[in-house]
Amino acid sequence: MVILHFIRLCSLLLLVSSYSKADTCLPDVEGLCIPGVTITEETEAVVTEEDKGTEIITTTTTTVTTTTTTVTNEDSGDILDGDNDYVSSSKEGDMDIDWGGQGGANMPTGNACYGLGSDKCAQITGSGNSTSTMGVAGMGTTFIQTVDISDLEIDNGGQVKYTIEVDKQDAQDRIYMHITGLNGTSQVFSGTDILSESGVSTGYQSYNGSFDFGGVLNKVVIEIGGRDINLAVGPLFDDVTVNVFYNVINTIITQQITTIEEIYYLDIFDPTELDFIEEVFEFNDVIVDEAGDIEFAPIESQSEEVSYETVELEIQEFEIDIPELDTPEVASVEIEAEMEMELEMEMEVADEPVEETTEPDSETTEEPAVEAEDNTEQEEVQQEEAEEPKESVKEPSAKEKAATKIVKKIDDKERYDDAAQMKTLIVMQILGNTKTFFDTQSTIVDTDVNEYLNKTIEDNYGVLFNMAQAQTIEEMINAQY
Q: For residue range 97-128, what is the model confidence (pLDDT) as tens digits?
């Protein structure tokens, strides 16, 4: 027999892995991820078993790791806007001030900006044909600057988007937009868009474009360049904006550990110990708190109201259920059974062999007569005993039988509680017809003995005894002289 006890039982989890439909955005992915939430669950169960000789402890530890990944796309805002605190007013995209760069440049205003408006704009005037600082060929003039965006803490990739207004009056001129992304001094991405190539008549146009990147980005190099081939009116541009959109990934990992300990007690216990364990669980509620500690709370039994009237009524109900067996037929059957038993005993005594002793020839002839006389006397004694009437045994009354059943009905485990003791005492009262046992008794009043204590009894003989002792001592003293 193996007894199973659960010592500690934590709440069980649903051990099923689940995934959301949102795409996972890995660190090396270039561009913007689809915003959403991805939830993954991984379950690991470890089972250990320890044999302690008297019991086998099996411990199952289940670890459920839940990974919640939230992807959002954040916008830096226009990093060429001075109000966003990435560039100073001299480096803004409104092109009121020259950023600096390679080749010749001009900052016209009014009608000289043509379709770009009456405020200032930037003009490419260089006619050279070289390679720019950022590696773009066919360059005569550049406007260039580096913007620090490290405070955005971009580390999961994204996308750089730009817009620019261009007015190219001479079809032979050319203009391009170049952006390089850096992680410190390491190049993350580099992109060049030819806005209007030489030989293409575009006039006024608004352009936009984007470059994807992955990983960490903390600097952006912006270069706008081109050529003024005919040296008439070079390419004009204004209102440049650059926004950095980047992925923000928040990952929350939670672990929930469920530990189940099962103790299998081997069949090596004393039956008394097993009875004690069964009694503990029978008469106590087992309570497991949140910390996993076990407490035993005694089960409170409903106390039975016991009174003289209820017990007397219970005895009457039992009397009704007990059939009367003291009928003449039953008595005769009992007497006949007793007589048959006595006859059987007499026959067994008669069949027992009698030991014979061998004596000299003169004595052996007299023994049969003596034995015959003894056998005759035994038969007479047995007949007399058979004729003597058997002492009648008083049968218990129906009330006594009912009372006995009520007392036996009390559970051994509850025999010494207040209700059981009271019920037993009332049953004894009913059988003894001592219903008035607990009636008010007469009170014995103590007699005041103070007047006896105050009296002094004179002892005349005591005075004489004292005088005789004094005389004797005086004589002993005088005898010394």
A: 999 999 999 999 999 999 999 899 999 999 99
Number of CB atoms found within 10 A of residue 23's CB: 13
Q: What is the C-alpha to C-alpha distance for residues 41 and 65, in angstroms, rounded to an integer?
A: 6
Residue 430 dihedral angles phi and psi, to the nearest 5°:
-65, -45
Helix or strand run (H / E) with residue 182: strand 174-183
Q: How many CA atoms lie within 13 A of 32 on its CB side?
A: 15
Least confident stretch, 8-22, 273-287, 291-305:
8-22
For 266, phi then psi, to 5°, come to -75, 160
Burial level of 164, CB count in 10 A (0-12/13-18/19+)?
Answer: buried
The two tokens of residue 274 are: 């097993």
14 burial via Cβ count (<10 Å: 0-12, 13-18, 19+): exposed
Whether 122 contacts 237, CB under 8 Å: yes
Q: What is the mean pLDDT of residues 429-453?
A: 63
The H or E element spanning position 381 is: helix 367-387
- Supply the pLDDT for residue 428: 75
State the Cα–Cα distance between residues 242 and 160, nearest whole angstrom.
7
| CA 403 to centroid of chain Cα atoms | 52
User: What rounded mean pLDDT belongs to the chain?
Assistant: 78
How far apart are alpha carbons 234 and 231 in whole angstroms?
A: 7
Residue 206 predicted with pLDDT over 90: yes
Q: What is the pLDDT of residue 200?
A: 93
The per-residue pLDDT for 209 is 96
Q: Distance of alpha carbon 72 from its chain centroid, rounded?
A: 36
Query: Can you tell me whether residue 138 is helix, strand or coil?
Result: coil
Q: Please say whether the beta carbons of 75 and 243 come within 8 A.
A: yes
In terms of pTM, does the model score above 0.85?
no
Q: Which residue has the tokens 């100073």?
A: 88
State which H helix or E strand residue 133 sits in: none
* Mean pLDDT computed over 469-475: 84
Q: Helical H runs in 293-366?
A: 308-321, 328-351, 361-364
Distances (CA, A) of 212 to 75, 155, 318: 14, 13, 98
* Residue 464 vs residue 351, higher pLDDT: 464
The whole-number pLDDT of residue 345 equals 59
- Provide the greatest CA pair distance for the chain: 186
Sort strands 294-298 and 55-78 into parallel, antiparallel or unpaired: unpaired
Which of helix, strand or coil describes residue 23? Answer: coil
Given a contact cutoff of 8 angstroms between Cβ atoms, the answer to whether 212 and 130 are in contact is: no
- Say which range, 34-38, 159-163, 207-211, has the weakest mean pLDDT: 34-38
Type of residue at 404: T
